[in-house]
Amino acid sequence: MDNLQEIIDIALKYQLEGNIKEAEKIYKTILEKSPDNPYVLHYMGLIFSTQGKHELAIQYISRAISINPDILQPNYNLGLLFYERQNLQKPKNVS
Question: Residues 1-33: pLDDT tens digits?
């Protein structure tokens, strides 16, 4: 399978099905050969986010945006990450 997009699609399918370990393995292999692939950086950021690794998620998604700021999904997801981080840092009201 030489087509990079086909490989990315397979990894994304794994990710959407909840097979995160397999998706992450494929994404890491792709990033070794294409470290500036904004789509894979974004998808890895989403994996890190679901694992609670928010700072790492922000780094990966920010890098994806710096490479190609015209892709909408990373911009949207980065905004969500900042919003979630802000809410996580607020003190909880005690009743």
Answer: 459 999 999 999 999 999 999 999 999 999 999
pTM of the model: 0.87
**Side-chain half-sphere exposure of 73, counting CA atoms within 13 A:** 9
**Distance between CA atoms of 90 and 40, rounded to whole angstroms?**
31
Residue carrying structure tokens 């393995």:
25
Residue 81 to residue 27: CA distance in whole angstroms: 21
| Segments making up each domain of the chain, as ranges | 4-88
Confidence band of 95 (pLDDT split at 50, 70, 90):
very low
4-88 CATH pick, 1.25.40.10, 3.30.70.360, 1.10.150.20, 1.10.1200.10: 1.25.40.10
